[in-house]
Design goal:
By secondary structure, this protein is α/β, with parallel strands linked by helices. It folds into three domains: 79 residues, Archaeosine Trna-guanine Transglycosylase, Chain: A, domain 4 (Roll), CATH 2.30.130.110; 126 residues, Rossmann fold; 226 residues. The chain has 13 helices and 23 strands. It has a seven-stranded parallel sheet, with helices on both faces. A four-stranded antiparallel sheet has the order 1-2-5-8, with no helix packed on it. The chain has a four-stranded parallel sheet with strand order 13-12-14-15, with helices on both faces. The radius of gyration is 24 Å and the shape is globular. The relative contact order is 0.14.
């Protein structure tokens, strides 16, 4: 294993791939660097003297300015580097992208739905329209699993949340759109929509958002309308179960895959190993006609021009500008600092500024052109790389990816997390230490990229693993029974 990595030839810093001791002599590009301090894994050290006010370069881009003179061999982090970012910016379209060359087809075993979509799971979902019936939904889930054997129907899951009532404006709209998206998600063989009866997001109101649906597979009930709501719900689930039990996996082209890309609990290696591997995976899938979705808009700040210049045309560029600036305005409307990031865990792992974090985060986008830009809870329409409006919060962003159409979410992490959203959520570690320590959480170890394989080899292995998961192999959070949703809240609660 390497001791360090210099990512770009223009960089003024290198990143320690393991803890490095003070006094160690490191040779970089034929020049010796003696470390003046202990350097933790994932953290940066200076390859040259950097004067106060000068830019600190990593990934070939500025990640901030030196707060003070930084000596060659010094630890470079939050104590001596500050962000260079400002507020709302003006952008100019400077195209710098080209389509990926097509590659040979690949297949997986999935479920063809009557609406033309393709699913990778055959589950029955119980969707409360309001948090008031969460406990009832969980009771129904438990009783349904006792009554209806899992097999052709792979799982029965209740998705609890605190919303559906006492909401106003965009919050209320977003909640209703999320519910409609879930009802139409291809991983759901059927859905029981479980209402209370007096909530804002009641079933009659929700119907306007749902549109056409399969009446054999989507059922509705309001708990206030029945003496025994649990027994009535089980009756309806029985009808869905009967319709879904005949579903079979069939060969499907990889072009039918829609994969969400997310990072959380990042460390200084995330932008060097896990995120670039996911980016290379994205390019592989897109080259086969598939689709990927990148979100976490606040974590694009500082690297947004890279994505803007890869937009397929000027109209897509303008949508990307709006995506970025609308999210900045969201912060300022709430009197919050736009660049209050990275998190404490990020800093502990070696990420210094938002530019540092963003340049690492956007590695997940690979090199494909940006083909689509999605509002929150908007279903994906364009094949290829899409950008989605959602915050950095892990549960909210992962849910947003799923409701926009992702059948699987790839989640890179340097510190680990156990959660999963409504679709298979694959945990990809940035380092081998984490993969070994939290083997009950981590599905794929991208840390091997700096040990015994190239980025391209790791991406190919990841692609083949995704095909297996799409064909029914469970990721570890699924096997543990972890399923959560979180809806983006922006405004007032009544």
């Amino acid at each position: 294993m390497q001791d360090f990595v210099k990512i770009n030839k223009e960089d003024k810093v290198a990143v320690a791939l393991k803890p490095l001791a003070k006094g160690a002599a490191i040779e970089v590009d034929g020049e010796q660097v003696t470390l003046l301090e202990d350097i933790p894994q994932g953290h940066k050290f200076a390859l040259c003297a950097i004067k106060a006010g000068e830019p600190v370069i990593k990934y070939g881009f500025r990640i901030g300015y030196a707060k003070e003179d930084i000596g060659k061999g010094s630890w470079v982090h939050i104590h001596n580097v500050k962000t260079a970012l400002g507020d709302i910016l003006e952008y100019r379209y400077e195209p710098d992208g080209k389509p990926l060359a097509p590659t040979e087809a690949a297949t997986f075993m999935g479920y063809k739905r009557n609406d033309g979509k393709t699913g990778v799971r055959n589950e029955i979902w119980i969707l409360p329209t309001v948090g008031c019936v969460n406990s009832v939904a969980k009771l129904i889930e438990a009783e349904a699993k006792k009554r209806f054997p899992l097999g052709a129907v792979e799982d029965i899951i209740a998705f609890n949340h605190p919303y559906g009532c006492s909401q106003m404006g965009d919050d209320q709209e977003n909640t209703r759109k999320v519910f409609a998206d879930m009802i139409h998600h291809p991983n759901a063989a059927g859905v029981l929509v479980l209402g209370l009866g007096c909530e804002n997001c009641n079933i009659p109101v929700l119907m306007d958002y749902i549109g056409d649906y399969d009446k054999d597979r989507v059922k509705f009930m309001q708990c206030q309308d029945f003496e025994d709501e649990t027994e009535k719900a089980l009756e309806l689930i029985g009808e869905i179960y009967e319709a879904a039990s005949g579903d079979k996996r069939v060969p499907c082209d990889a072009s039918e895959l829609v994969i969400g890309m997310k990072c959380g609990g990042s460390d200084g290696l995330s932008g060097i190993t896990a995120n670039p591997v996911v980016g290379a995976f994205s390019d592989i899938l897109i080259s086969k006609g598939g689709t990927t979705i990148l979100t976490e808009v606040p974590e694009m700040f500082g690297a947004e021009t890279i994505l803007m210049n890869r937009c397929k045309d000027e109209a897509t560029f303008e949508k990307t500008v709006d995506l970025i600036n609308d999210f900045k305005n969201y912060f300022t409307r709430h009197n919050q600092t736009i660049y209050e990031n990275p998190s404490p865990g990020n800093k502990k792992g070696g990420i210094t500024t938002l530019e540092d974090k963003s340049l690492g985060c956007t590695q997940k986008s690979g090199s494909a052109p940006v083909c689509g830009v999605l509002a929150y809870a908007e279903p994906v329409k364009e094949r290829g790389l899409n950008l989605l409006s959602a915050p950095g919060n892990d549960l909210v962003a992962s849910t947003a990816l799923a409701v926009s159409g992702a059948q699987i979410v790839l989640f890179t992490t340097g510190r680990g997390t156990p959660f999963a959203t409504l679709v298979p959520t694959m945990k990809i570690s940035s380092n081998s230490k984490l993969a070994g320590f939290k083997s009950n959480w981590i599905d794929f170890n991208a840390g091997r990229m700096v040990e015994d394989m190239t980025k391209e080899q790791a991406a190919e292995e990841l692609f083949n693993y995704v095909l297996r998961v799409a064909s029914g192999e469970k990721v570890k959070s699924e096997a543990a029974g972890f399923h959560d949703i979180a809806i983006f809240k922006q405004g007032v609660t009544l």
